[in-house]
Structure formats: structure tokens, C-alpha cells
Amino acid sequence: MENVMGLLRIKVKRGINLAIRDAVSSDPYIKLKTSVVKNNCNPEWNDELTLSISDPNIPIKLTVYDKDTFSGDDKMGDAEIDIKPYLASLRMGLQNLPTGCVVSRVQPTRQNCLADESSIVWENGKIIQYMCLRLNNVECGEVELQLDWIEVAGCKGVGTQDFEWREQSFRKRRPRE
Ligand SMILES: [Ca+2]
Ligand SMILES: [Ca+2]
Fold first, then answer.
1. What is the pLDDT along the chain (177 residues), one digit of tens a residue?
2. Nearest Cα to Cα of residue 106 among 133, 126, 79, 124
3. Beta strands of 26-125 (E only): which ranges?
4. Which of 10, 35, 75, 88 lies 20 to 30 A from 170 at CA?
5. What sequence ranges are listed for the domain C2 (predicted)?
6. What is the dihedral of CA 80, 81, 85, 90, to 10 degrees?
7. Residue boundaries of the structural domains of the chain
């Protein structure tokens, strides 16, 4: 557990205008853990995935599939979640803000998969990031989700990551005495 910073909870809320991979619709699910929604290109998932995070520089990959019974499932696009802006907000160590207060905003760029501006918001004692991702490698489709962080006893947490990394690289570079 010493390399784990904590747990990231990804609540996948819904898909919007997803690709058609059957005759008239699809049965979309997100890779591995969300449930299948039958025959619907605007599914409401409201599912939660929890991942342990060790390296914030590794983006989280999300893939949408169409569940098929008699053949392999069809791909409906993929996207990456960049968690660095979210972790940076957690590291600010904010406390007791009013619910709904926007801590930070992330703009869509060529490097991230955001379909829209994403807000990082203080809500009921937690920092939550809301995002809508535009799916790649597909003709259409977006996925709405939110991130929140779970501190776990025995994990190193978000606060010291940069500092430790700098310390280590400094030590490596220092010439032998
Ligand atoms: Ca299909
Ligand atoms: Ca299908």
C-alpha cells in the first residue's frame, strides 16, 4: 500500500448521443465495471468505479462497448481521464468552504478529452470534479462523470507526492562523494 496515494471514485453518470452499433441502437457499458444498459444510446448508468491511484501521471482509460449476444462486443469509443488538475485541487488543503463553491475550472484542450469546461467544486466537505468527456475513435458520443477522492489509512495521500518526487530525483542526480 505504500505506493498508493488513495482511492479515486469515478461515478459514471450517463452517456450522451453514443454511437449506434446494432440495427438502431446499442447496449452500452463502460469497460469492466459498469452495468449494461439495454437498447439505449443515451444511457443513465449512475455506476461507481473505485480505483487505487499510485501515479497521477498515468491517465485513466475508459472504453465504451456495445454488449452483443452472438458476436464480440462492438467498440463505441474511448477517452482518457486526466486526474492531475483534480489532485492539484486536493493538494490545496482547502477546508470549510460553502457547498457549491468552485475551486478550479479546467478548459478543454487538445491534450485532454473534455467536451466542455469542467468544474472542481467543494461539496459537503469534499472536493468533486464534474466532467463531460468526448469519446475518441468513434463518430459521436460523450460520457458524463464525476470524481471524488477517498483517503485511506496507510496510504501516502495526495499531499506529499510532488515533494517526495523532487527529493528522489535530487538524490539520484547528486554526484557521488
Ligand atoms: Ca452490436
Ligand atoms: Ca448490442
1. 567 888 889 999 999 999 999 999 999 998 744 445 666 777 777 788 888 888 888 888 889 999 999 999 999 999 999 999 999 999 988 888 999 999 999 999 988 999 999 999 999 999 999 999 999 999 999 999 999 999 888 888 887 545 444 444 445 555 555
2. 133
3. 28-30, 44-53, 60-66, 74-81, 101-106, 118-123
4. 88
5. 1-97
6. -160
7. 6-162
Distance 73 CA to ligand 1 centre (A): 6
Determine the distance separating the centroid of ligand 1 and the alpha carbon of 110, expressed in angstroms.
Answer: 30
Tell me the CA–centroid distance for residue 72 and ligand 2, in Å: 9
The ligand placed nearest to the CA atom of residue 29 is 2
Sheet strand arrangement including 6-16: 44-53, 6-16, 142-150, 126-134, 118-123, 101-106
Q: How many angstroms is it from 142 CA to the middle of ligand 2? A: 18
From the CA of 68, the nearest ligand is: 2
- The superfamily (CATH) of domain 6-162 is C2 domain (2.60.40.150)
Ligand 1 centroid from CA 74, angstroms: 5
